[in-house]
């Protein structure tokens, strides 16, 4: 079997991998990308977890379920009368699948446009070879590639409960949670992280009774405490039942559903009976089938590939990015690392600032933040000022009929440099971009306070929160 040689071989076609491949090709490298995802028809479906069973399909279902809830509960406030409202889950899932396929096809188009050679199958190391590393592609037809540089972007897998495997019917990962064929009467969720809350929100809006069991004693521990409290209040009001500080015991799946034995925060034995159970307790790096030992690629105790600050592994010309390495498991973090690595291969100075990577939870209200939380600043002993502004005092939010939440600025007490911005409320995922830009340019709260923001707009809440840092908010 003859091998095909490339300047750059990318293993994995998720957000990190496909972006790395495109940027490498733009820089003039002969580039290949290997990815094994496939559609029901067996055709290639690049885009990784994000496109196929993560970011994209979950947002499609969140939008559909939010539309349903608006029609059921809020259209009347606008004078719009709806009768005979029902939900066609099959059609909703079909729309979600169509959105996913559009993204799959878009990536294949981008590969063709940028002259990236795409190989459908699982990529694995074989050995170090003359001119780089030999990579086997196991798919419909086995092929061998040689890459001078190799970028590993194999992503992550959902973490299962010990002794409780995913069957994607009763015990669900993010994959199965996106394919529930009808609205369950009772849905259990273990873990109040991003996936658990988003998927719990989808099925709660459609009529399920949702109970979230969280082992930690605090809700959304990584989020600013003030924002987390606001979120807990909002979600509880909507109907999500959230139990904190629980200890999960035996989980049994049967023909009629799932039984979860647990101890509550007071030490009392409890049982949750539900039709289906979503397990959302984090993700683990995916190196299954990569065969790292064949070339001596170093992994850490979590199974992640060990890299330095520039995503270099212990092997010359082998790089790793995204969920399979250290740092936050975020699609946009993976993309930034992919671009940076391609540029470093070209001798340029690729750059990723971990301090300005935004985080988003696409619930309703949305939650988004960048930089430090108030509890982190307190722990560091850093002197700071805080300013907040509620959406209930924002004209555009009132017009939308969505006034839950607030914008919060944290700035250095002496220099006024923005240290963190936290948003809970409508379109928080979009509003946070201004804060990311501001922090990347080392802006002060005063800088944002003096910039003219369009009226009426939600962005005015960002300006007002910046003004509030100096106690001079104008509309509250």
From TrEMBL:
Cofactor binding description: Binds 1 FAD per subunit.
Gene3D superfamilies on file: 3.30.390.30, FAD/NAD(P)-binding domain (3.50.50.60)
Entry annotated with the keyword DNA-binding: no
Record GO terms (molecular function): dihydrolipoyl dehydrogenase (NADH) activity
Note: The active site is a redox-active disulfide bond.
Family: Belongs to the class-I pyridine nucleotide-disulfide oxidoreductase family.
Annotated protein name in UniProt: Dihydrolipoyl dehydrogenase
Organism field: Caldimonas aquatica
Lineage: Bacteria, Pseudomonadati, Pseudomonadota, Betaproteobacteria, Burkholderiales
Gene from which this protein is expressed: lpdA
